[in-house]
Amino acid sequence: MSVAVRLTGVGKTFTRPETGVSEIALRDISLSIEPGELVAFVGPSGSGKTTLLNLIARLQLPDTGAVELTRADGAVPRLAMVFQQPRLLEWRTVAENVRLAADAAGIPRERVAPALEAVGLAAYGGAFPLMLSGGQRQRVALARAFVVEPDIILFDEPFSALDELTARTLRSAMQTVRAIRPHTGILVTHNTLEAAFLADRILSFGAHPGRIVGEERVAIPRPRDPDDERLFRIHQRVLRELGV
User: Fold this and answer.
1) CB neighbours (10 Å) of residue 232?
2) Average pLDDT, the chain
3) 7 vs 213: CA distance, rounded Å
4) What is the largest CA-CA distance in the chain?
5) 179 pLDDT higher than 90
6) Backbone φ, ψ for residue 107 (5° rounding)
């Protein structure tokens, strides 16, 4: 079951320990994300995108405003997060890395094999992470997130450390998995073409302080072709919103 996300007047300030100077990371962020919607956050470094993701994940608390995650049945939403680096346990096999997440979430172990198959790693369950390429390791991270059957998945630049050919393949894999189970999602990325390909809506962030400066809806049916000229036109509009 997907979850709705509501942010109202969210603000966050950090104080640099070496100088004691406070810096506003986010100011007065209000937005709504509907169940099953994938929203991309784009913008320059320092615009508060990852900070906002951490607030939604409850890894940090806002100084002002409220963050609400709501399931229709009133249950506590289940979150998963995919980071820029896969963060795998090197001494555990691929299947064991995914199984640890399933066990922690109370998900039957029988779901591990389908999760690996969904990301193209059905033949690699017994391999260790050091035997895998960077793209394969990130596929494991995706499988680990999908296996817990989350209500919402938070993606923090999951493909930015990969070469473009590998990243392109993984974006398509992510699109395929979301077609099977369209969970609510938030994607932080610097790649505006990636945002256009994957997202239902793109929010552009400005820096100092972090704030929303533009919104673009992506009304292109799925499955999408990464070479669709309409995606490129959306990419251009988002860049203009960002002043690039």
Assistant:
1) 14
2) 93
3) 16
4) 52
5) no
6) -95, 135
Nearest to 154 by CA among 34, 40, 75: 40
Structure tokens of 61? 């608390």
Tokens of 111: 């779901």
pLDDT tens digits, one per residue of 95-128: 999 999 999 999 999 999 999 998 889 999 999 9
pLDDT, residue 1, reads 59
Q: How much is the pTM?
A: 0.92
Cis peptide before 209 (omega within 30 of 0): yes
Helices (H) and strands (E) in the chain, counts: 7, 9
What ranges in 119-241 are assigned the alpha helix state H?
Answer: 134-147, 164-180, 192-198, 229-241
Token pair 């391999």 is found at 127
pLDDT band at 10 (very low <50, low <70, confident <90, very high): very high
Domains, the chain, with CATH or none: 3-78+152-241 (3.40.50.300), 85-149 (no CATH)
